[in-house]
Structure formats: structure tokens, C-alpha cells
Amino acid sequence: MKVFLIAAAVALGILPLFSGCDDSSGSVSLNEEENDVFYYTNMARTDPSGFADEFLPPGSSNGAYEDLSTRTPVPPLALSEGLILAARAHSKDMALNCGMYHDSCDGTSWSDRISSYYDGGTLGENIASGFGTGLSVVIAWIEDFNIESLGHRENILRSTYEHIGIGQYESYWTQDFGAGGI
Hints:
Helix 2 (32-46) packs across helix 3 (48-55) and helix 3 (48-55) packs antiparallel against helix 4 (64-70). It contains eight helices and four strands. The termini are far apart. It has a four-stranded mixed β-sheet. By secondary structure, it is of the alpha+beta class.
């Protein structure tokens, strides 16, 4: 399966986005699980029916399998250093200070927090806790169990987003999305 996934990443032209830069240059690198979130998020975007066939059972939560099976592919997301820093800061803040909330534990709104790292005009965020792997958290966001709005899935599959940042701290996860910035 890994060979197929890597081959698919090369074919889709997203594998080069996986490698981070040396932190000493001012850029940030993704850890292995954050990298998996990046990969599987882009797989769901660029091949939604393939993602559904590979990872979701028919009849999965909130019609995720059926939804992805009929979705039109959208372009992959590019990594944004600002969004990575925003996502990591939020995951750490949740883990150490207040638990799962979109707004920062000091009361800063989620959008103001992200905007302090990323200058884009269109923003979105997914958060989660309790997942041990990047794949498991992406599946949970796509299934959106007990989330009537399907907001996590919609964020992942929204065609207007151009950039992503992923942050993991212990079992807390944040995905920040943006468009129009860097």
C-alpha cells in the first residue's frame, strides 16, 4: 500500500511538498504524523473516491463514503509556514492550558490567532484530540461523527483553500486552512 501511496503522490505532484526545510533556515518541517495528515488530506482532495475506497467503509459515519465517492477532485494544498506555526501553537495551547476549543485559551478568537501568523483573507480550522496517527485524525475529520454541519469534511474538501498548516502536540491536532496569503 505504501508504494501505491507514494506513487500516487509522485503522479499527483504533491510528494515534493512533503519534505520540510531545515529549521535553522527559518522554515519549519512537519513531523511524521503531521506529514501523514498533509498527505491524506491532499489525497482526499485530489482523489476523493479513491480515498473513500481505500479508507472508508460504505455506510460510514455521516455518509462520508457516499459523499467522497461522488465528489469532484480539487487541487492539493500547499504548506504554509505561517499556518504550520499557528496550528502548532494552538495544539500546544489546548494540550497545556484549556482543552479543545477553537479560540485560544487566552480568549483570542481562532481567526485572530491564525491571522497573526498568516496574512490571507480566507481561513478555516479543524481541531481534534485523542488520535494517535495522522491517518486516524483525517478519517475522523472526514467522517465528522456527530457534527451535523460536516464542517471538518467541508474544510478539507473546500476548493477555495490554497494552503494548510498542521500542528500536533501530544494527542491534540490542529489543521489550519487559508487562501490569499502565505
